[in-house]
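User: I'll paste a sequence; please echo it back and then give the predicted structure.

Assistant: Echoing your sequence first, then the prediction.
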Amino acid sequence: MKRDVELVVVDDPEAAARRTAELLSAAARAGGHVALSGGSGPRRAYELAAQLEPDWSGAEVWWSDERCVPPDDERSNYKLAKETLLDRLAAAPAAVHRIEGELDPGEAADRYDRALRGIQLDLNLLGIGPDGHTASLFPQAPTLDERDRLVVAAEPGLEPFVPRVTLTVPANSAAAHVVFLVTGAAKADAARRAFGGPPDAGTPASLVRSQYGRTTAILDAEAASGLSI
């Protein structure tokens, strides 16, 4: 697996969101398979991506992970993307492949694993938590060792404490372009470990790199403060 990461450091969260939105909109124009993430980090990037490219009719949308809640729950990663990106588009994606968080976690993981088989993600947008997790791959979790499945159920590693469904390390790393969006001083230590140190199960983000393509980390100045650049 390729280990090199392209580090893109910008002044502030708004600039980081715009750089991320540019990549998302380019992937949509190219008609790619795009995997989205949840949490508060990508919200502004999704809003800007809808402005930059309002026609996603050639693209298909996936998710790197989901909280096991109904799609209209405030904790849902799907709901976040729907409100900030999908509902703002002039032309909807050709397909929206939602993780069915309202199902039993094992069943939802099995269904998404089957759906993702044979799909090449063109862009996989990920974040990093202060503990170094990415998607719902948490530090030292047994899910980090999974190599056969693309999607698994996962125990909650942080609030909200609900079960999760997540792409595995190999599935996240199979994307042609893996993009991390990381902002804020609270993420600085995790970013240092993820992009400045060796692969380590204590920092799951350090384990995810595009296997054959590119890995890009977009950071604001505060998140990048612990890195030697």
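The chain is about 25% helix and 20% strand. Residues 13-29 form the longest helix (17 residues).
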